[in-house]
Design brief:
Length: 583
């Protein structure tokens, strides 16, 4: 076998793939598809799905500067065998706004500096295409970035040059400013006199008129908010939910299998490919970016992060979460809490965590002032990759939490929101120790007693956990904080639906000793008088249900080497009034 290909974790430079023997999943057929789309394109995808790498591929393909390196880049790719007439015909002007400093006192200077470097690099790279006078004007640092951009457009248009504008992570620093400083500071940059608004006004101007300055443009980000605010309607075609482009960012299941088989054959993977693929599907997969898409997608960074760790320690890593893929809680905090009070957006977040799904429209454009609308907030969660499309019915999308990684994020968001709104705080270290005792020693009672006592002592939380579904959602949020179990709710087992199945994550914790099947029963305060009478009947009914569920083939298979404990929890409103383990 040839030298084993390196794992390209964190690599977004296409040239490095070619020079340093990195494993490459060929996505170049989508270049051909993009050429049948409008000239100006806008793509939203979650973080770490490979957006920046694809931009590097587009640069290598379209840039006239790389004309003599076409075979080096593409000889063994789809587009190398099926080149289009547009290859190597453009001058590329690129911006990466992830570089811009989001500290408010530094943002303007940092933005100008980045743009200046981009213009100077452009002038040096394409000096043969411009006169000395034109190059001097392009390099003129006395002009603001928007004005210099207009100068580039003017000279490119005058010289009859094809200009391709690429903007990566266009909303990175504005999202950070919005999260850290609020709407007023954000609007300083994006309203009429803001420098970012001016920059995009120039961009928009470059797309209009006879012989428009910009021949092609491709903008990526994680939400449409900033583009709506700085352009009052966007620039170009939003291709985010285009079903023919579902698979061009991220990995399909077939591509993931091919990666695993390659490294298995190379002797780098000792486990069965089917086992690792099951882990990937459960923790990194199940994304769909169109209701008409035929494939589920996997987060490419998470896949490669796993493989890097696996090959270093020669076993399945315990920590499957890659910090680089997390959506920081601060990005949502300002949308959930106003004046120390949880708002309607938190209710939506909590509902999704409890039900694991929601039905909503996905809005392609909305401004920061409209973000409080329910559908807009749900749309933002979709763009962030926290929920994904599974269906379209009754005039709206059905969206679900895609995998276990995202479930754990939701649990943390809810815990942090309760804490920041001064509603509910727990000693997480004590709680973690109790869950460990439950997991390895079967001492489950103390976990539920602890949570119940904390609810009793911290009265503000009670308004958020009345009703059976609310109790279940509360338990889900806190049980999901630790990753010993995959927690399933209302899962069908033997022609019934179990309230909670705590399925052991045995591949991470092979010595895990106990798993849990839980039936949860609820009484409202109005039912106080009949509770004592009903409890024996409740336990009797729950016993029959649990004994039937525990024989289900899924539980038999997934319990691994654990002992399954069957538990009944009875709540009177928020108060745990009866708990029992049955034989």
């Amino acid at each position: 076998m040839n030298k084993i290909k390196k794992i390209p974790y964190g690599i977004s430079d296409f040239e490095l793939f070619r020079t340093d023997n990195y494993y490459y999943v060929d996505k170049t057929k989508y270049i051909e598809l993009l050429e049948s789309s409008p000239r100006y394109l806008f793509l939203i995808r979650p973080r770490r799905f490979g957006k920046s790498l694809f931009l590097s591929i587009l640069t290598a393909y379209y840039d006239v500067y790389y004309k003599d390196k076409f075979d080096f880049f593409f000889s063994d790719t789809y587009i190398g065998k099926h080149p289009t007439d547009e290859k190597n015909k453009y001058l590329i002007l690129s911006f990466n706004f992830a570089i811009v400093d989001s500290r408010i006192e530094n943002t303007y200077e940092s933005f100008e500096s980045h743009c200046n470097k981009s213009y100077n690099f452009f002038a040096d790279k394409y000096s043969n295409f411009f006169s000395k006078k034109q190059l001097t004007e392009i390099r003129n640092k006395k002009e603001k970035s928007g004005d210099r951009l207009e100068t580039v457009f003017k000279h490119a248009q005058y010289n009859g040059l094809k200009l391709y504008i690429i903007i990566d992570e266009y909303d990175n620093f504005t999202n950070s400013i919005l999260a850290s400083y609020g709407q007023d500071k954000y609007l300083q940059f994006t309203k009429d006199k803001g420098f970012f608004k001016h920059f995009f006004n120039v961009i928009k101007g470059g797309t209009t008129g006879t012989s428009a300055s910009i021949s092609k443009m491709y903008i990526t980000g994680v939400s449409p908010i900033t583009l709506e605010d700085v352009t009052s309607g966007g620039i170009g075609k939003n291709i985010t939910t285009n079903p023919t482009l579902n698979e061009f960012i991220g990995f399909t299941e077939t591509e993931v299998k091919e990666i695993l088989l390659y490294y298995k054959k190379a002797g780098k993977i000792k486990h069965e490919v089917s086992l690792i693929l099951d882990i990937f599907r459960q923790w990194f997969g199940n994304y769909k970016f169109s209701e008409d898409a035929n494939e589920i997608m996997y987060n490419s960074t998470m896949v490669f992060n796993f493989l890097v760790d696996y090959m270093q320690i020669k076993k399945i890593p315990k920590n499957l979460l890659d910090d680089n893929t997390k959506i920081d809680y601060s990005k949502l905090q300002h949308l959930l809490i106003i004046d120390k009070k949880l708002n309607g957006n938190f209710s939506v977040l909590k509902k999704i965590s409890e039900d694991r799904e929601i039905q909503s429209n996905i809005n392609s454009t909305f401004s920061v002032k409209e973000i409080g609308g329910r559908d807009n907030f749900v749309s933002l969660l979709y763009y962030f990759g926290l929920i994904t499309i599974v269906d379209y019915k009754e005039g709206a999308y059905v969206l679900k939490i895609p995998n276990e990684s995202i479930k754990s994020f939701f649990a943390k968001y809810i815990k942090d929101a309760y804490k920041d709104a001064d509603i509910f705080k727990i000693d997480i270290y004590k709680y973690s120790d109790l869950v460990r005792q439950m997991t390895y020693h079967g001492k489950w009672q103390e976990v539920f007693i602890f949570l119940s006592k904390e609810v009793k002592n911290q009265t503000k939380i009670r308004d958020y956990i009345s009703g059976e579904s609310m109790i279940k959602g509360f338990l889900l949020a806190y049980l999901n904080l630790l990753d010993y179990y995959t927690i399933m709710t209302e899962k069908e087992f033997n022609k019934g639906f179990a309230d909670l199945w705590l399925e052991p994550v045995a591949f991470k914790y092979p010595d895990i000793a106990y798993s849990y099947l839980i039936e949860l029963k609820y009484f409202s305060r109005q039912d106080d008088k009949k509770i004592k009478i009903e409890i024996p009947n409740i336990v009797k009914t729950a016993t029959k249900q649990l004994n039937r569920y525990v024989k289900d083939s899924h539980i038999v298979k997934t319990k691994a080497n654990t002992i399954v404990k069957k538990i009944v929890l009875v709540y009177n409103a928020w108060e745990l009034i009866h708990f029992e383990e049955i034989d």
